[in-house]
Amino acid sequence: MAYKFYLPEMLRGEVKEAAEAGAVVLVPVATIEQHREHLPLHTDIDNVTSICKGVAERLNPNPRVLVGAPFWLSPSPWDPETIPYFMVKVRKEVYMEALNDVLESYLRAGFKRIVVVNGHGGGTEKWIPQVIEKLNSKMSSIWPDWRIPQDARVVGFCWISFLGEFAGDELRKILGGREDRDWHGGEIETSLQLYLRPELVDMSRAEADPPPKEARFAPFSLSTWHRQFIIEGYYKPGTICNDPTLATAETGRKVFELVVGKIGEFIKEFVR
């Protein structure tokens, strides 16, 4: 039996039934912004939404997993006047309040397990945890007379940091022994788009970055992006070396299968 899992396409009765059955909701979060010259603007949100759908397709019905509507607003740190490429940018406070209200809406609908899967950087590693912490304090921002149930729980992670932490050896094997030095539009993100949306990628425009600068205390890859906040405000441009010209659809397939499987393992533990 096929189970519906993409929440925006479900009927309201189906959503109610899934909530009452204890379904987990995966919420893909990323952005719409430039991804160098060779990738489409949707790269972050498309990659993470596809990953979430892959997890749901693999796990259903045990446990029951839904995928919420992609949340693609972002407080991108870049200024399109100085970096003349398109991006959707919202204020940090607007971003945090909007994300809070979206997640709280799932909780109010009766879902007790929410997983925010982040596919973007730009400071969101600091702000998403603050939203999650507030929700887990059980205080409602939308319905003042309602308290979030004590047994409800929201968690979140950046998918590529998660992969680097819990499947680093497997990822390096896929990359032929190379570290996952993909800051933005590098080998991993490009490979995923070649696998998922090859018709939107222009590899003739892909260029490698120059070698990374020596920076002992700065993060060196997207998988360690979150660690820049160990030293608040410290980031040295150019420390990240990524080469999208190495990307292939086969690498994208292997990375996709790895991350879908690893997140699936987490979801099974999360619902126990």
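Second entry:
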Amino acid sequence: MKTCLITGTTNGIGLATARSLAEAGLNVVMATRNLPQASLVGDRLKKTTGNNNVSIISCDLSSLDSVWLCAQTFLETHDRLDLLINNAGMMTGNRELSTEGIELTFATNYLGPYLLTRLLMGTLKQSNDGRIVNVTSNIHKMVRNLPLEDLTGGNRYGGMLAYARSKLANVMSTFSLASLLAGTSVTANCLHPGIVASNLLPENTPLLRFAGKLVRRVMWNAERGSQTSIHLALSEELKGVSGKYFGANTREAVPSALARDHKAQQELWRFSERLLSNHSGFAWETDLYRTETSR
């Protein structure tokens, strides 16, 4: 039985994705910070899908310590991982910081999933069809440059821009992973789920909430928005396919030129490694870009 770890499953696209994976007979592990809600969701999934292999692990993606503990708990309780879906995302109207002092949107949407992927890579490589699926967004195309030092600090802040930057980082990181994993059994792809009605818009920005209500009538529901995630997770046609960006119609799409910039990808990767080392003392045994820089 294949095992999947998926973040952000208590509502929206993540819940719809988890339901489909449970229906497909996978062992579904939900990583979430809202344990009481996740417990209710897990029980409901077991009853409605007939799959009792649904479990929960605590994980607050904005906290590096929580992500580390989540990965450690998973590795202690599971002997395999075939599918990692980094689905969770958030946006805030006001500039907030994580427990490590990192801008909250960047920490939650990018750095936390980056660390989780990093920590579980060894187990993924043991699968003969390991897949990393990152849920991103077409909004990454609005970003014209990615000022790395400003991602975690800076005096100017815009909620939508911070969100777009985090999604660009997700896309760039996916392509980096695909390059670094070439020749292994693990693939990495990312996707735009479509314009989906969700609870993403922050409560502390009434204008955005109001705008969201106005356009909900033309938004997709979570089930439709989850189709590309499910396709990337389960399609036999995509076995061995890596380093691609898919649109909401499950077809391959074209990301921004900046997202495809190899030098920018390397800079983001090294910046991420420094962040983890500086904030939490994480030390890695190898430089993942060693083969790239030695060319």
